[in-house]
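Minutes, project check-in
Item: structure for the 689-residue chain
Input as provided by the requester:
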Amino acid sequence: MKTKLLLFLLLIAFQGQAVFAQKSKPRSKTKVQTTTQIEGINQEVAKVEPILLIIDDEKITLEDFLAVYNKNNTTKNQEINRKDLEEYLGLFINFKLKVKEASRLKLDTASSFISELEGYRKQLAQPFLIDREVNDHLLEEAYERSKADIRASHILIRVEQDASPKDTLAAWNKAMNARKRIVGGEDFGKVAVEISEDPSARDQIIAGRPPAKGNKGDLGYFTVFDMVYPFETAAYSTPVGQVSMPIRSSFGYHIVLVTDKQAAMGRIQVAHLLLASKPDDTAEIIKEREALLKEIQQKIDKNVPFEELVKEYSDDKGSAPKGGLLPWFGPNRMVPEFVSAIYGMEKNEISKAVETMYGFHFIKLLDFKGVPSFEESKNELKMKIARDIRSNKSKDAFINRLKEEYKFTSDAKALDAVIATLDTSFLTGNWSSEKAGKLNRQLIRFGEKTYSQSDFAQYLENNQGDSKVENIKTLAHAKYDKWVEERIMDYEDSRLAEKHKEFRELMKEYRDGILLFELTDQMVWSKAVKDTIGLQDYYEQIKHNYQHPRRIDAVVYKFSDEKSAKKSLKRIKSMSSKNIPTQEIVDYLNRKKNIVEIENGLYAKGDNAIIDVFEWKSGVSDIVLANNEYNIIYVTKIHEVEPKSLNEIKGIVISEYQNYLEKEWIKSLRNSYKYTVDKSVFESVFNKN
């Protein structure tokens, strides 16, 4: 993929050339400046940042060159080697010349280039549009939470995220009343069944299926990222046995009871044996199952292989043929009783019977993968954070910092005036900014930007009718916050290159990388494949380097005994001289019983032990003993040393042709552009005293 090429194009092994050569364009009579002359250019700047290289009018400082060298140097923390640095400077010059040529050809104005670079820019900008301190905190927090598994129950009181203050307060009060009842001594599960708006708390009746037993608010075990962030935070912050204050999430208000906290199990693999149960099991069925449970436990105690017991007894028909093996899972993938039994087990240990909503399980712990180290987890955690609502903490902190940096101001009265023009048509997507009339006062100001009431009104017109919220004022304020956020982020995005040298250099790397890829593809890679005439001509020049050795076309008749070989020799010579096909000869010799097998092909020395032990000449050989067999070889043709065909070595020829085109292109570029290297600046890298 092109993406993979962009960051190491500077390392492409272009053909080496004299680093300190000085060339001039054939089309220009201008004399190239010598090193002495260069030393006199802009002495004031040179004292601060010595100029190492000048290509046409572009000046590259020693600092910039060394930054690129160190970034791509794989042998870090080692003293710079003169030879390596000289070679790298040669590659660097080639790279710069190619980018110059790409710009001269205006490849950077092509719509495909602009579009591709913009795509990369969006990716590169992301790390600069967050609060890194907050992001680091979120990363550390997520890792610490990954070390523990929580079991918790909850009661949910639903309320929309954009609900009116009145509806929000009503939901809060309902949640607080539930909490007071529980803190006052009522059973959490009983209250959950009564008032929780999470339907899983109560038994579910589904037509055509057995009743699904409610969980009474028990969510089982979970770890980081298994729950929405506010809920997760409440669970990890509440001591075991205590009930949290109401916590707001996108679903509404939760009150959370933490019932257990364990060191994280990580990823687990088990096998299980299930004796299924149903709520309507008769006393007789229950008694039979109890007897079976006792029988199985006795066999486990006698070390009967678990896999055999599973195949004999288990009601889980999906896993039974595999010895009860279940896929790898985390704590949130199984019912809590099943998970709880695994904590503290040793590898290959088998649990006592564990009762769940599905029946009774004997569980054998086969393997587990603990929580990886922070370094091992870091990249995955970063990706999860970026996709999770918790990333808003970083964004919000970043926005607040930008507001302070850019001295953000807002006119509350001007905002109220715009909101006052909204009516119910805004909820249905039919409101027009014309209803804001002549409102055009400044609404917000930050940095060098100002936005008016009409700007916000136009935004409202373009972003209406997409919410279930019926309170116009609440919805309008939410839209305003989002509008402000977008304006500030757009402004910051536009200033990234100005504010951040790292971003500026990355963008230059990607710009130059894309240009180099496109131009190299045109001049070398694709050209070598498409230029069939040029490829053929180049093949003619190098084919002597790729020769076939002397070879023979031969048929080897193989006999297991000398008598059969001697009897057949005269017949093979006679029939072969008449050009009778080989298979007809074999069929004739084997007409009474199978006495001969054949092998044929094109052979060179070393290809076949039988071929190697006789003198090569056309016709049928005498009997040759090799590999405990009696062989007769019929040489149909001798091929003298000859070049391999283009089709045989096309991949190699294309590769060499590309190298040839590369060399010629570099020669042309070095003759077309002026470039000079200041030797004294280069030497200063090694002159440390």
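Outcome recorded: The mean pLDDT is 89.
No further action items on this chain.
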